[in-house]
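PROTEIN DESIGN WORKSHEET
SECTION A - STRUCTURE
LENGTH: 166
TOKENS:
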């Protein structure tokens, strides 16, 4: 959805929350209603995890770009694993090859999408709570993401004894 200046999200959706400190007191507010155009080129679109799944599956399934352009898009830069709009990374020690990924966020939301290069297997996830205290959930979200990626793309070889919240 491209909201222009409309802050409403149609249909079912997750609410976004932001926690901050005010005069020594922790406060949490609902920041769902916002106009993402303030992010400039990084914003002005609202996507659900289903939208991300649909997009990455269509993109890597060859439905949006001719094969040569898609190959160029997924070709990582020699110094960083970034192509033209996507990151390319190793699927992990037990995985098969590479995975294509990108993430993003705005106040109160964070989202990610991962896929096999052919679009046959995808993972999309979102987080609807962000705070300004050193992004307290960021580390836990990153660890949980690593475990999910290993489980989905690495053959399910995650150590079940170690919780994702560690």
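SECTION B - SEQUENCE
RESIDUE ASSIGNMENT:
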């Amino acid at each position: 959805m491209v909201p222009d200046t409309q802050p409403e999200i149609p249909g079912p959706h997750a609410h976004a929350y932001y926690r901050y400190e005010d005069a020594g007191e922790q406060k949490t507010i609902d920041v769902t209603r916002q106009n993402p155009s303030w992010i400039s080129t990084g914003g002005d679109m609202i996507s659900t995890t289903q939208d991300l799944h649909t997009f990455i599956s269509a993109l890597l399934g060859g439905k949006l770009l001719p094969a040569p352009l898609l190959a160029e898009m997924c070709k990582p830069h020699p110094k960083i694993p970034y192509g033209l709009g996507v990151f390319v990374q190793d699927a992990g020690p037990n995985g098969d090859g590479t995975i294509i990924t990108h993430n993003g966020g705005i106040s109160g939301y964070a989202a990610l999408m991962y896929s096999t290069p052919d679009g046959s297997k995808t993972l999309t996830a979102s987080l609807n709570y962000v705070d300004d205290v050193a992004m307290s959930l960021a580390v836990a979200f990153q660890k949980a993401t690593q475990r999910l990626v290993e489980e989905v793309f690495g053959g399910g070889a995650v150590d079940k004894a170690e919780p994702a919240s560690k």
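SECTION C - NOTES
DSSP finds three helices and seven strands in the chain.
The first strand starts at residue 17 and ends at 22.
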